[in-house]
């Protein structure tokens, strides 16, 4: 990936003076700052780090909220700074903003003393993040990077809401050596352990939302929770310190990803198109899961956007191909077009008969044209044979109609 700048600022126009102050300071310390040479979304994605200026205006700004979501799913380090106290700002934070930035390490610039103390901290933090990015890029270029670990890095980032404690993790503490437990028992023990922390970290009304997310997305509505499923979700790395709260922290990070994806791909999002164009670099399981969920959304435009985005990821899993094939028969013609083109770009061989059916049978000419393009993009023997056969049949039918 080619970066356009070291730092991108998320801010409301009313905070422009403070943004200019920080920007000049960072530039004087040899860091480059995005200056508007591309679209905002592209500038954010192509920058190494993000500084968000938190204020009572930016927390109410939908564009700022969208950009924070985009920064999160693109795994860009986020550094919140503010000239106001957290006590003043906290009531103005939306749920998505609170979920993603409230527990990060904020830096306060309320007075000259804090500016003198905290600017060096901000500078060092950004430089540390840039050094890590540079090292990872070098490893990937040399072929030494762990693709799976890199793809999941944003989901494994530490959650500062809780402090590590000595002792057993959640499963060991509550269920011992059991290999499976009923969902209702698991839920009750989970809430017994973490309900107060969910209420403290978020709000009381989000307890049920987190529980539903756990049951629906993580456990797939299964009535029994197995230790294997639990371990797979936690994804503990043997070379990393064991976090006793690993399951809860993993769930919180998963929730952040879901909220961020909803924010980025909402039809009113100000960064949606930039996200779609760059989504190929965000190949995480949470991105994939969220897009599959959005591809079944009630809103046809959202389904179409999700279909395009799934194609952009280039992930050719069975789940993706089956969902995209299903979208070929969607009631909305834009969704069918999007599914055709995405299947073509992904070169899904198993989709050829279904695309051929669309090419021959769809009543909308634009959809038929998209299906033909998809077959040409797949360009396999099967696809070429289907194209040739259909063209021959079309020619023969025209000849018969003339006679």
CATH homologous superfamily of the largest domain - what is it? Toll/interleukin-1 receptor homology (TIR) domain
The oligomerization state is single chain
| Inertia-based shape | globular
Q: Percent range for helical residues?
A: 55-70%
What's the domain count? 3
Estimated share of beta-strand residues: 5-15%
Output the number of helix runs: 20
* CATH class category of the largest domain: Alpha Beta
Mean pLDDT across every amino acid position: 83
Q: How would you classify the helix and strand content by structural class?
A: alpha/beta
The H-and-E topology, N to C, reads as EHHEHEHHEHHHEHHEHHHHHHHHHH
- Poorly predicted segments: 143-166
**Biggest sheet record:** 4 strands, parallel
Pfam families: HEAT_2
Protein name: TIR domain-containing protein
GO molecular function: oxidoreductase activity
InterPro entries: ARM-like, ARM-type_fold, Toll_tir_struct_dom_sf
Describe this structure in words.
- InterPro entries: ARM-like (IPR011989), ARM-type_fold (IPR016024), Toll_tir_struct_dom_sf (IPR035897).
- It comes from Patiria miniata.
- This is TIR domain-containing protein.
- GO terms for molecular function: oxidoreductase activity.
- It contains 20 helices and six strands.
- The termini are far apart.
- The strands form two sheets. The chain has a four-stranded parallel β-sheet, with helices on both faces.
- Helices cover 61% and strands 7% of the residues.
- With 403 residues, the protein is α/β, with parallel strands linked by helices.
- Mean pLDDT is 83; it is low at 143-166.
